[in-house]
Design a protein that fits this description.
Number of helices: 7
Radius of gyration: 27 Å
Shape: globular
Strand content: 25-35%
Structural class: alpha+beta
Largest sheet: 6 strands, mixed
CATH architecture of the largest domain: 4-Layer Sandwich
Mean pLDDT: 93
CATH superfamily of the largest domain: Metallo-dependent phosphatases
């Protein structure tokens, strides 16, 4: 009995010593936090290292993912860090950061002394102790008020074959672009995180800097928490949220993929995992700090993956941007194209509705559908619009978005659905349906038949695209298909309809004209026969 008491006394004593030591270390850690310090400078000799005599850059913003500080007159900054911190700069106007050989901006330093946890797809290797100085080289570049940015929604390849689809369907036609940079709006890949590099090398052939937004198919699905779900993305692209300036525009890239692992278990005994749209308090603090340094009348563009109306804590973001007269947001995720105007119905309190763009996707409907003559699936999106990309153009605070169908002429902006042959008795009951790919509730669409006839106003009528339904039903009847089956039709927000007017027998030309809110016009034609 005495022996048991003695052993217990010794063990308890050891535990007390360990607990005391841990408390002392914790107290020391709290009293003496770790800081990253460094210099932002003009790298005149291009060696990426700060050397005496090179100009330092004051007033450059630097962040730890929550706090933002400005460099002092000596180009220096100081930020608190922990063992899982990415320190990054907010690229100022007129400067560019280091670019990798795949044209990815390297505007950050990852501090993970112990590296990422073990996951199916590797994250960051151990970075070791914090360097004595974390410096950021910058290089001057011309950034006019007028410029363009390319926006890719959801390229989402599930294998190398689909990376090749991206190469042939969109990248080849963009070589030589005059855009200043490009952005992929999430779902860079389709859960195959080992394809990050291959796709980056393909897009790099455009020769312009390329930024990336994290999507729900870009995360580590075996991660045990939201904090560790971005490890492979961080290794490839850096922080999952950040900001930068180009010209007079401020771009804010956010991570609205919130990964969760619940204690409740599924039928197979595993913990329930999934994602939802969310920002989290730390990121919201970064956004608040970031926007606090941006003039109220500067143009702000927020880039994300899940559409803004699908984000749980979006109202916190609304409060930060709704008084800004020049602010838009762009997302991907839903695989359709839409101009959405957010109003008080969704809790928006701004004087004007917020313009949110759900961008056309490169993969269209996930690379589904019969292949064309290039052996690339037609990949038509379920709203009836083709796969492709958009080009966002700026002139100060003015902006416009152009829709570009992959592999088609820039003039291809609509599909017109009407029967080939109509009897005169059926004219009044025959509907012409027009899918204006980049149309919105603010578009004005009209139709005329014959050069000397009047333009007839068409009614905005969101619904199922009849042409897409026809193709879907035809493919569905095929028993064996060597391609992925098309997705079912979904409501298209950019359809207009009108019935045919009285017409004599013969062959007639239907002309469609669509004018957007900026008074830009696109057109289409279709021939119809009347008997």
């Amino acid at each position: 009995m005495k022996r048991k008491i003695y052993i217990c006394t010794v063990v308890c004593g050891l535990l007390l010593v360990v607990a005391t030591r841990v408390a002392q270390l914790q107290s020391k850690s709290n009293a003496d936090p770790q800081f990253a310090v460094g210099i932002v400078f003009h790298d005149k000799n291009g060696n990426k290292k700060y050397e005496k005599g090179e100009p330092v850059l004051p007033n450059v913003r630097v962040s730890n993912g929550r706090d933002i500080v400005k460099t002092d007159q000596h180009g220096r900054y100081k930020l608190a860090v922990n063992d899982d911190t990415i320190v990054f700069i907010v690229k100022p106007r007129g400067w560019r950061t280091v670019l990798s050989d795949t044209r990815l901006p390297r505007f950050y330093y990852i501090h993970k002394p112990n590296g990422s946890p073990k996951l199916k797809y590797p994250g960051v290797k151990p970075t070791g102790p914090l360097p004595s100085s974390v410096d950021f080289p910058l290089y001057p570049q011309r950034e006019p008020e007028q410029f363009k940015a390319i926006l890719f929604g959801d390229p989402q390849p599930r294998n190398q074959k689909e990376v090749d689809y991206i190469a042939h369907d969109v990248v080849e036609e963009l070589v030589g672009t005059d855009a200043s940079f490009g952005v992929t709006l999430g779902d860079v890949v389709f859960d195959r995180l080992d394809l990050f590099e291959s796709q980056a090398r393909t897009i790099a052939l455009l020769g312009i800097p390329w930024y990336n937004v994290i999507g729900n198919h870009d995360i580590n699905l075996d991660a045990s928490s939201d904090q560790t779900s971005d490890e492979t993305f961080e290794r490839a692209f850096g922080p999952a949220y950040y900001s930068f300036d180009y010209g007079k525009v401020h771009f804010l890239v956010i991570d609205n993929i919130e990964w969760y692992v619940e204690d409740a278990k599924t039928k197979d005994g595993k913990k329930k995992r999934g994602y939802r749209g969310g920002l989290g308090q730390r990121q919201l603090e970064f956004i608040r700090n970031d926007l606090a340094l941006i003039p109220a009348k500067q143009m702000v563009v927020i880039l994300m993956h899940i559409p803004l109306t699908g984000v749980n804590d979006r109202h916190d973001l609304y409060r930060m941007i709704e008084k800004r007269p020049f602010c838009i947001s762009v997302s991907g995720h839903t695989h359709h194209h839409e101009h959405r105007y957010i109003t008080r119905k969704d809790g928006w309190r701004g004087p004007q509705p917020h313009h949110h763009i759900i961008n056309v996707t490169v993969s269209g409907s996930w690379w589904k559908g019969a292949p064309d003559e290039r052996k690339i699936p037609h990949a038509t999106m379920a709203d009836g619009a083709p796969n492709g990309y958009s080009i966002l153009s700026f002139d100060g605070t003015d902006y416009r978005l152009d829709f570009k169908a992959a592999g088609r002429s820039a003039e291809y902006q609509m599909n017109i659905h009407a029967p080939e042959l109509v009897s005169q008795k059926e004219l009044a009951k025959t509907t012409v349906t027009v899918n204006v790919f980049n149309g919105s509730e603010k578009s004005k669409v009209s139709m005329r038949i014959g050069k000397n006839s009047k333009w007839l106003t068409m009614k905005h009528s969101p619904g199922i695209d009849p042409l897409y339904r026809q193709v879907f039903e035809a493919e569905k009847k095929l028993k064996k298909k060597p391609w992925l089956s098309m997705s079912g039709p979904k409501t298209s927000p950019h359809l207009w309809k009108a019935n045919l007017p009285p017409l004599p027998a013969g062959t007639h030309l239907i002309e469609i004209r669509a004018i957007d809110e900026n008074d830009r016009s696109v057109s289409g034609k279709r021939i119809i026969r009347i008997k």
